[in-house]
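To the wet lab folks,

You asked to see what we're planning to order before we commit. Fair enough. Below is the target structure as C-alpha cells, and below that is the sequence we designed to fit it. If anything looks off to you, flag it before the synthesis order goes out.
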C-alpha cells in the first residue's frame, strides 16, 4: 500500500528564513506553506517538510537525495546558484566534487543552510 502513496521528506532547521532561502533560491523548489509545525517545499511532485528545532546536530550521512539524468549539468547549475559541493578525500573529481562508484554510478554531496547533507546521483 505504501508503494502507491506520495512520499514526504523531512529535514530539520534552526531558522525557517535561511532554510526557505536555500531550498527556494538555491535549489529552485516551490514554497507551499509555513506554519508553527513546518516549512513545506515542493520538489519534483514531492513535499519536503522542514521542521524547526531549537538546536540539533546534523547527521553526517545523506538525509535527502535526488537521482538526476545528467549529474555534471546539475552540479554546474547548483554551483552557479551558490551551492558548494563537498570534496571528500575519496572523490576523484575534486573540481566538481563528483564521486564515481566502482559500479559506475556518480554521486555529489552538498549541505543545506543547517549542515544537513544532501546529494545528487546518476545511476
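Sequence we intend to order:
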Amino acid at each position: 500500500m505504501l508503494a502507491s502513496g506520495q512520499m514526504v521528506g523531512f529535514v530539520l532547521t534552526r531558522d525557517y528564513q535561511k532554510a526557505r532561502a536555500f531550498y527556494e533560491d538555491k535549489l529552485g523548489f516551490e514554497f507551499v506553506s509555513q506554519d508553527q509545525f513546518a516549512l513545506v517545499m515542493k520538489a519534483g511532485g514531492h513535499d519536503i517538510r522542514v521542521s524547526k528545532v531549537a538546536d540539533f546536530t546534523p547527521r553526517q550521512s545523506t538525509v535527502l537525495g535526488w537521482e538526476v539524468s545528467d549529474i555534471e549539468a546539475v552540479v554546474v547549475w547548483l554551483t552557479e546558484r551558490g551551492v558548494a559541493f563537498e570534496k571528500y578525500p575519496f572523490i576523484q573529481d575534486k573540481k566538481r566534487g563528483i564521486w564515481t562508484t566502482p559500479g559506475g554510478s556518480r554521486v555529489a554531496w552538498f549541505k543545506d543552510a543547517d549542515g544537513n547533507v544532501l546529494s545528487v546521483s546518476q545511476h
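Structural context that might help your review: The chain is about 15% helix and 35% strand. Helices lie at 16-26, 71-80.

Thanks,
Computational group
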